[in-house]
Specification:
By secondary structure, the chain is an alpha+beta fold. It folds into two domains: about 35 residues; about 140 residues, Ribbon (Umud Fragment, subunit A), CATH 2.10.109.10. Helices cover about 20% and strands about 35% of the residues. The strands form two sheets. Strands 1, 2, 3, 4, 8, 9, 10 and 11 form an eight-stranded antiparallel β-sheet that branches. Strand 10 and strand 11 form a beta hairpin. The mean pLDDT is about 90.
């Protein structure tokens, strides 16, 4: 009888250890292959994302789909692959980007890109500037154009698709900012 109780207790303990180990493995897999967690250190994406906001990104977002203009992406900085940045896609592969007087024109359009997400009118590096986005690359900018280290400034101007870690999905902390990023 005592032996049966010891075996039962041992099975129970082993069951808990196995459950905890599986949960830890699942959490690591989700963290490393499905979601990315980031804390935003600067105001370069204000008004959309504030300094100190905690966000989740989807690492699988571009597995079967291509990034789109307006997507907020998390990526390795082209000039320093040890750093991760978060910015908005402005130019897609093959696009011709023209910046004049704080307005963006895509592919010789006479109508500027509609950008209702901007923090304010911008005057820093506001043009005239022109870029031609190479294949498998993207031109990105922060929403706070007056205070954003983005494609306009980098030695390696464009973000290669292989440098994209994921698509920003939502802010989860602080709670007053909780919600989807648009």
């Amino acid at each position: 009888m005592v032996k049966e109780k010891k075996e039962s207790r041992l099975r129970s303990i082993l069951g808990w250890i196995l459950t905890i180990a599986l949960a830890m493995i699942a959490a690591l897999c989700i963290k490393n292959y499905v979601i990315i967690n980031a804390i935003v250190p600067t105001g370069s994406m204000e008004k959309t994302i504030k300094p100190g906001d905690n966000i989740f990104g989807n690492r699988l977002a571009y597995l079967w789909d291509n990034p789109r203009r307006g997507d907020i992406i998390i990526f390795y900085a082209p000039d320093d692959l040890s750093q991760k940045f978060i910015k908005r896609i402005i130019g897609l592969p093959g696009d011709k980007i023209k910046i004049m007087n704080g307005k963006i024109y895509i592919n010789d359009s006479k109508v500027p890109l509609k950008e209702d997400y901007l923090k304010e009118d911008w005057y820093v590096m506001s043009g005239p500037l022109e870029y031609k986005v190479p294949e498998n690359s993207y031109f990105v900018m922060g929403d706070n154009r007056n205070n954003s280290n983005d494609s306009r400034y980098w030695k390696h101007t464009f973000v290669k698709k292989e440098y994209i870690i994921g698509k920003g999905i939502f802010i989860y902390f602080p709670f007053e900012d909780f919600g989807e990023m648009k």
